[in-house]
Specification:
This protein starts with a helix and ends in a 5-residue tail after the last helix. It has 2 domains: 111 residues, 2-Layer Sandwich (60s Ribosomal Protein L30, Chain: A), CATH 3.30.1330.30; 158 residues, SPOUT methyltransferase, trefoil knot domain (Alpha/beta knot), CATH 3.40.1280. It is of the alpha/beta class and 283 residues long. The strands form 2 sheets. It has a 7-stranded parallel β-sheet, with helices on both faces.
Length: 283
């Protein structure tokens, strides 16, 4: 389909310049400061756009590359669907679209969702009643962060607490989360140790995935629905302040010479054990 015809049919705005203010605005969303200033982030590709639309997530704009008109019927279908929902649609020349995209091989469509209001760790009593929770402490790699969030949703976790972590709305994290970002509640704990104290005051048991005194071995103790496992930084583990406040350390049994697991692998092991034990009791 010719771009001119598509614009007439959909009422889309058409932008051809890499220097256009909207091109510059959307390209800037790869940067955290620009995301927070604009209150927007990027969700790139067919799957993430579809997931955002299906979740009813607030979307400020849909961006479509001219090349997708011939190469990606699914991207065009999603763009038309968004248009029918009243979401503004912009058709970009391929060179302008490539300036915005952070993908090596762009799929020709990008959703621009609205950044959700931050849930502070102090609001857990109000937001997280009855939910199984996971706490992440200083996870700095966006890919690991997104992967852990994806596992958390898949294995029945009702929300994730982030303390000193990478931005979950960074493009790499959004890609790795594979749509979970639109469905899984997140809380930001400005002070990880204070958050742990608050969780304990609410009657939850906080278990740090680390070696230490009062070890519990995964598979050898009874997980409780109110437990909050904590996964630490990829290099140095859980911060001393958070570790000091935890009720106990949680050890993953291993054989061979490996001393530890990648943060996302450790999270998956722990979350699976909780899912296996508690799947019949989850609300």
């Amino acid at each position: 389909m010719e771009p001119e015809r598509f614009v007439i049919e959909t009422g889309a705005e058409r932008i051809t310049s890499r220097a256009n203010p909207k091109t510059v605005l959307f390209a800037g969303l790869a940067d955290r400061k620009k995301r927070e200033e604009a209150g927007l982030f990027l969700a790139e590709g067919v799957k993430l756009t579809r997931d955002a639309l299906e979740a009813g997530f607030p979307i400020r704009a849909i961006l479509l590359a001219e090349g997708a008109l011939e190469k990606s019927p699914e991207a065009v279908r999603l763009a038309r669907d968004a248009c029918e929902r009243g979401i503004p649609l912009t058709l970009f020349a391929d060179t302008a679209f490539e300036k915005i995209s952070t993908e090596k091989a762009p799929q020709g469509i990008i959703a621009v969702p609205v950044l959700p209001e931050k849930r502070n760790g102090r609001d857990l009593d109000r937001w997280a009643v009855g939910k199984r929770l996971l706490m992440l402490d200083e996870i700095r790699d966006p890919g690991n962060l997104g992967t852990i969030m994806r596992s958390a949703e898949a294995l029945g976790t009702g929300g994730v607490i982030l303390s000193g972590c990478a931005d979950p709305y960074q493009p790499k994290a959004v890609r790795a989360a594979m749509g979970t970002i639109f469905r899984l509640p997140l809380w930001i704990a400005e002070d990880g140790a204070a958050c742990v104290k608050s969780l304990k005051s609410a009657g939850r048991r906080v278990l740090a995935a680390a070696l230490g005194e009062n070890d519990l071995t995964l598979g050898d103790f009874d997980p409780l629905p109110g437990d909050v496992p904590v996964i630490g930084n990829e290099g140095h583990g859980i911060s001393k302040a958070v570790l000091a406040e935890a009720d106990a350390c949680l050890r993953i049994p291993m054989t061979g010479g490996a001393e530890s697991l990648n943060a996302s692998a450790a999270a998956a092991c722990i979350l699976w054990e909780y899912y296996r034990e508690l799947r019949h009791t989850d609300r």
